[in-house]
Amino acid sequence: xxxxxxxxxxxxxxxxxxxxxxxxxxxxxxxxxxxxxxxxxxxxxxxxxxxxxxxxxxxxxxxxxxxxxxxxxxxxxxxxxxxxxxxxxxxxxxxxxxxxxxxxxxxxxxxxxxxxxxxxxxxxxxxxxxxxxxxxxxxxxxxxxxxxxxxxxxxxxxxxxxxxxxxxxxxxxxxxxxxxxxxxxxxxxxxxxxxxxxxxxxxxxxxxxxxxxxxxxxxxxxxxxxxxxxxxxxxxxxxxxxxxxxxxxxxxxxxxxxxxxxxxxxxxxxxxxxxxxxxxxxxxxxxxxxxxxxxxxxxxxxxxxxxxxxxxxxxxxxxxxxxxxxxxxxxxxxxxxxxxxxxxxxxxxxxxxxxxxxxxxxxxxxxxxxxxxxxxxxxxxx
Length: 382
Hints:
The chain is an alpha/beta fold. Helices cover 32% and strands 7% of the residues.
């Protein structure tokens, strides 16, 4: 999910006309995330899913339910859909990690917008001729408009696009990763991990919910606070949750025990951005992640696990936040630091036991066309 305002009319090209200034911070107010998404789903058996009861309201997705009001079910078809996921965005990063862990690269192609955007949102400016090579569009906005002319909400990533029509199917990011695990099983790689172990779901769901409300969204609540009072309250909530996680991870290698799960994917993308962006840009600066023994060891453990760190583009992450969020950083200067080589330092988490993939296996090397640029991550040396 990008943190964008509702799109303006696509006519006109002057940069200031489509500035993001005023899109993020409301004077005196607590930041409130718009969580109304296109709730269509891509499922293995559309008819069966249509018969299931509608899901309860949720900001973290649901399992075992059917469609929300007005939503449509689309059939799982390898090669039909394209995942559009900017490297910079933590919500999009989740979908890239899960796609890689499960081995869905052949089934679902990947489009990568550049790291910055204006009020009209993401562009394919890094691709040849500034167009996505599969969709042929310059802006993701065009794919939203192909399905919903004049779409009134933010043009967010991740988004899954139906390649034949060029229209967006869904941008419901918490549900996308759950459906990758449950609806695309026929196309999982051999040895793919079970990110949603049935015997842990009852315990995992409250963990995922707290991670989302207090950490994933908590850093934004700090960064986009519109008053000192709103910021102080957000800061206290965030650090209460981070202290809880620090304690939880002192006795277990991963959030749910000895193997990685969906919960780890959801926490990791925030932790990867904490010291490079959130600590300074969003003023979450009680401590650096690197100063928290267990969270930092846990984050390095995941970073060094295939499928996690090899999806992280620190350069694009910094460019996105510092350039795009004009309300927070009006100069749009991108800081040079911090030094990120410490992500490869030994983490010592093996002492807690467990294996990241359990009885499964790690994914193979990142495909050439999906590799992070050299120098943008300590795993990819210049």
